[in-house]
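Data deposition worksheet. Section B asks for the primary sequence of the deposited chain exactly as it was used as input, without tags or linkers unless they were present during the calculation. Section C holds the resulting structure in token form. Section D is free text for depositor observations; keep each observation to a single sentence. Incomplete worksheets are returned to the depositor.
Section A, Depositor: J.P.
Section B:
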Amino acid sequence: MFRVSLRTWLILVPVIAVVVAWQSRHAILTPKNVASLSVVTTLDDDIWEIAWSPDRDRVALLGWEKPAEIHDALSLNTIETIGARQKLIHFAFSPEDGVVAYCKNGKTAEILDRRTGRSIRLDAGNNQPQMVFSPDGTTLATGGYGTKVRLWRVSDGELLREFDAGPVTGGLTPVFSPDGATLAVGNRNSTTTLFEVATSRRRATLEKEYSQGLQFSPDGRSLAVAYVDGSLALWNTADGRLLRERKTSAEELYSVDWSPDGRLLASAGLKGKITLWDPTELTVLREIDGPEWVIGLEFSPDGRSLITAGGSQLQAAGKRSLKVWGIEGSLYTLANRRR
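Section C:
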């Protein structure tokens, strides 16, 4: 019979533990394992917006009218601050490393090339001009409170074209499709519109009003939209046809996001659950008790964690925090819990 010496066991056990921990840490979230999600890390802070760097190693955490704090994606340790002593409300990383964009609570946005220090100010025309870079990083779309989204060339700040989402003025949220050919524009006070980026031609209007968060599926075929009435809907991006719609328990849905492989959807909002969905039939896989108000929700770009931000609806009534969710019971989870 084969026997293993004590000395061999003393060597093998730590090695096995490291392998198991690595595999658990690197487990991609799937429909089969989301039942085991639990909080890995908690960061006590009032976070309004979450943005990932293109290299996946950093995440920008932005409070309302505060500088953008850039954190290590794994440890959440602060690496640097962008916009020090400025009151920022939106922030975006460009796919081109070193380039970022941000805006204050006004009508201007700014593109900053951190490699050269060059800054370009854009007269976005709308208040609170939420920004998004195109997938190739050559253009920037700005939304905000108005009826038009504007598209700018990143290299020199030239206005290239406008996308008319009117006539109803509302908070406009622009999102590019993964191939950069389509721009979806959500309107907090009206319908969501799909535009052809190259021509600004209106391709489709989605027949449901009062959208908040919206995201294209990784393959670009579907658009998930979170609505003020607490419902979540999936739309066909080719023709604007409604695919599926589900009502959640939330009073309002604020955020929706796809896992990078498109096998999961997550949604959250006001006075409801953090919900994990199977997008195939839009069925619930897992509902998680969250705080009263969840304003931010993002899958990590590697698909191995989910980040949520929120807390009490009224800031003065209680604390707010950011939570990183991972697979329950992994050695990584046990070793990295921060309450």
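Section D:
The radius of gyration is 21 Å.
The chain is about 10% helix and 50% strand.
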